[in-house]
Amino acid sequence: MGLTVNTIKTEVVCQWSANIPSTPPTFTAAGEQLSVVPSFRYLGSILSEDNTIDNEVQNRIKQASAAFGRLRRRVFQNKNLHLRTKVCVYQAICITTLLYSCEAWVTYSRHIRALEQFHIRCLQRILGITWRDRVPHSEVLSKTNCRSIEATITQHQLRWLGHVVRMPSNRLPRRVLYGQLHRGRRSAGGQKKRYKDQLKTALKK
Q: Helix or strand or coil: residue 189?
């Protein structure tokens, strides 16, 4: 049995370590040229050519916002439901959708800020308060007994790290985590944040 490649459905995304070239390279399969795209969806996540999660974060917020909207009237604005029930539904559906695959994210302050704003806005709607009430974010989190998004991401990543560390040494995730490049240097100037940098920051916190 051989592998048959559908050249019409097959796309290529090149992830660059430095600047993205103006002219992308060409790839062919079965004599036909494949389309080179800046990003595409793989297993529910968006892979981008610039190696950032900007598109992924915006997509996660969009998906979680849609999930919140579908449950807004029946659950979150339902006066017959207890606050604890509303928060449990929110965490089970909206937060799970928002932070899907966050164990592998390399986040910057702009990502945390966007996710945190969405998180607080949803909790304010569940509590029935607005920005005019001038309720601080810490009080919103305390009333709903919720963690901040940054703390939740850190918890998920540390849990995944512990799972990988306990894997046998021949498992691919563990080999990748402890692997080192034999050749190559990082470019001069400001460096992109690596996954190991993300984990070190999480461990320090």
A: coil
